[in-house]
Amino acid sequence: MSSLRPRLAIGLGVGISAAGVMHFVRPEFFDAIVPPWLPPSQRFWTLVSGVAELIVGVMLFVPRWRRAGAMALLVLLVAVYPANLYMTWDWRDRPAGERVVSWVRLPLQFVLFALARMASGPWRTSAHRG
After folding, report:
1. 80 in a structural domain
2. What b/e sequence results for 66-95 when a residue is b if at least 16 CB atoms lie within 10 Å of its CB, and e otherwise?
3. Does the pLDDT value for residue 40 go beyond 80?
4. Model pLDDT, residue 2
5. Domain residues for 112?
6. What global pTM score does this model have?
7. Sign of the C-alpha dihedral, residues 44, 20, 101, 80?
8. DSSP character at residue 64
9. How many domains does the chain have?
10. CA distance 79 to 49
């Protein structure tokens, strides 16, 4: 498993970095899945999440930061999940193919979460001393 962790982290790093770049290449797609009632603006959250994804991606590439990067990815996946829920609700009247994409994104987040958890390695707990 230990030889799998670095490859898994690098694969996740490639994926999350690519997603981060896309926030700047096609921001209007990401703007549309940010709930419009979030202040200050949809574009703000698109750019912030894009920067966060790029930072996490870099962390996953650097062996010294890999564990922290995997844990940061766990937090990021939880933070962006509401946008995926909103997207699924907002796309309810779109063509079937687009609705399928929005529904597939929901469980995919859990798969990514599990992979990031695996990439983070064992979690240490301090022994309780009483």
Report:
1. yes
2. bbebbbbbbebbeebeebbebbbeebeeee
3. yes
4. 64
5. 4-116
6. 0.86
7. negative
8. G
9. 1
10. 9
